Amino acid sequence: MGTQQEYHVGIYCRLSVDDGTNNESMSIGNQRQMLSEYVCKQGWNIEEIYIDDGWSGTTFERPDFKRLICDIESGRINLVIVKDLSRLGRNYILCGQYTEIYFPERNVRFIALNDGIDSIQTNNDIAPFKNILNDMYAKDISVKVRSSLHAKARRGEFLGANAPYGYIRDPNDRHRLIINPEVAPNIKRLFELVASGDSLYKTAKIFTDEGILTPADYIRFRKHNPADGEFVPQYKWDKSVLNQIVHNQRYVGDMVQCRKRIQSYRNHKQVWNPKEDWIVVEGTHEGIVSKELFDAVLKAIEGRTRIIKKKDEPHMFSGLFFCKDCGRRMAHHIHAKSDYFSCGKYRADGKAACSSHFITVSALSEIVLADIQKHVTLLQSDEEKAVKRIMDSKFADEEKRLSKAKRDLREQKKRQSELDSRIKKVYEDNVSGKLPDELFQTFLRDYEVEKVTLKESIRSLEDEVHTLEAVKTDASQFIALLRQYTDITVLDRPTLIALIDRITISEPPDSFGRNRDQTIEIHYKFAGVL
Length: 530
Fold this sequence. Notes:
The chain is α/β, with parallel strands linked by helices.
């Protein structure tokens, strides 16, 4: 007579706001009690209880679920139990991967108690169907939540987690904004300084020098406990922060929302909506600045262009030359005997922010011209060899990926055709009486689930093939573009704009003097760094 396996049980509980906080039967406490009682009745050992409270089932990036997986990998857990399959998750593809592949491969028993699913039993055919229903429920809830939020946004209700800098939530109506008298004067002063001619760089320096707390530090300050010691600011005012503020229409009293959206109910990454899809409701709260001042500031910023002194047109490297170490544009300077670039962040904030990256315009021009001429010469001496060299050095990896993606796409489309044939065959066998109804339903369900998975995979592979083929086209475009400059002897702005996306300069943090170890990278149109 065999001995019963010793189980080390991991109880997993999950609840999100989408599941309904008023549903007592779904509460974390109810799940934990029900599962604990069941495990004890079986005489098993509860090794650990894992709880993800407030986490959506459409993602598996949950802290306690990841902790459960780590304990499975270490051998601490060999039985996972949940109240039902929807507690494991609502993404049917990933749920299937865990229940059908991951758990069995690691000899982990899986039980969904209320669904009657136990991986050591053979009557679990309903599991894939339940996973699909749970996924459909998550999609339906996502659509309803989004519709509800859009309706509130159209009514002018504030939906953000934190009020924008300069405002607080109305204590009597959390969906309405009122002016925060502590920091609203900073907003008004910012607009007045920029309207009077000060740049965002200069204004940021003024605010920093005066010790005015940034929006991020102000939030930290409001939460700071004096018992923890003196509050220490972490951030400095930056042009990008000020730029966001002066472009924010909320400061004139209008509510602007739905600027971003999540990519899908499964992928919670946020992406920007087109501006025409933003929901704007005018006059929902008191403005900090007038509409006239707001418009004057935007006009001042958009009308300000970078031109070199003593000339009326942009420098030929303007908008193309960047510091690789901090990402800021290189600033152009002209003095009596010097024409050079230095890092814009170093110029604005000093050596604590970045190093100088000093380089003369003549030196930069010489480097860029020599690099262009090198590639042109290579083309002129042996075009076939030059093309192959550029393709091999820049696009070899993409070529391998393209070949593999095309092969995988062919195989998956072939499998898709096979599934269509098999589905047709089981229908015919069922109609003729060769295949019992129970087996027919089982085969059909499995085939349909695989078809859905294949459809997603094929779409992804088609996108990858399209992207990689575009890379090959780009290589040909670069070669054709380079042929137009076979006689280049001097640089000008039209040539740089046509050939180059950006130029970067980097240098070691301890470099100094005129003998510095600098690296110039030229990112060519269609080809990148060669």
